[in-house]
Write a structure and sequence with these properties.
two-stranded antiparallel sheet, 6 helices
Length: 162
């Protein structure tokens, strides 16, 4: 299974637009917002970066789950790629699961890079480990829901085209 996940991850990282909008665009937006508005104090020791980090995280997750993933699934279904793999006795459930896991890995890579940039450049205030774990669990659930929604979008578009 690890091999399939690495292959899926490698295939997804070859799509430059997906990598740009999921990993680099949120960081560019963070730098632009912090440069434009500054890291002003809000209250209770919080600064603008502490609130904008969540927006930047969302900027990276939405294109990945609602654009890249549906396009990927739609392309595989339209070109009958899954059907050819089925004829070659490839376990399609394992392939699909590895594809989803690799998208989740990209989500967490994007958030990790956001955390590193926010903390190192703008002194992002990190919560306690407990709240940080809750944040990542919530992020996992949100990514799963968005991936399911993206899958439904791709299936709807596929039905509309045929």
């Amino acid at each position: 299974m690890a091999r399939e996940i690495l292959l899926s991850l490698k295939a997804q990282l070859r799509v430059p637009i997906a990598v740009f909008f999921s990993i680099f665009f949120p960081i560019i937006m963070m730098i632009m917002m912090m440069t434009s508005y500054g890291n002003f104090s809000l209250r209770n020791g919080y600064h603008f970066i502490d609130k904008y980090f969540f927006i930047s995280t969302t900027i990276g997750i939405l294109p990945l789950t609602l654009i890249s993933f549906p396009i990927d699934i739609n392309n595989l279904l339209e070109t009958k790629h899954y059907l050819r793999l089925k004829y070659l006795n490839v376990d399609l459930k394992k392939l699909f699961l590895s594809n989803i896991i690799s998208y989740l890995i990209i989500v967490f890579i994007s958030v990790g890079i956001n955390l590193i940039v926010g903390k190192s450049i703008y002194n992002l205030r990190l919560p306690s480990i407990e709240y940080l774990c809750y944040f990542f669990i919530q992020l996992f659930y949100c990514a799963i829901v968005l991936l399911i929604f993206g899958l439904l979008l791709s299936l709807i578009v596929l039905k509309l085209e045929s």
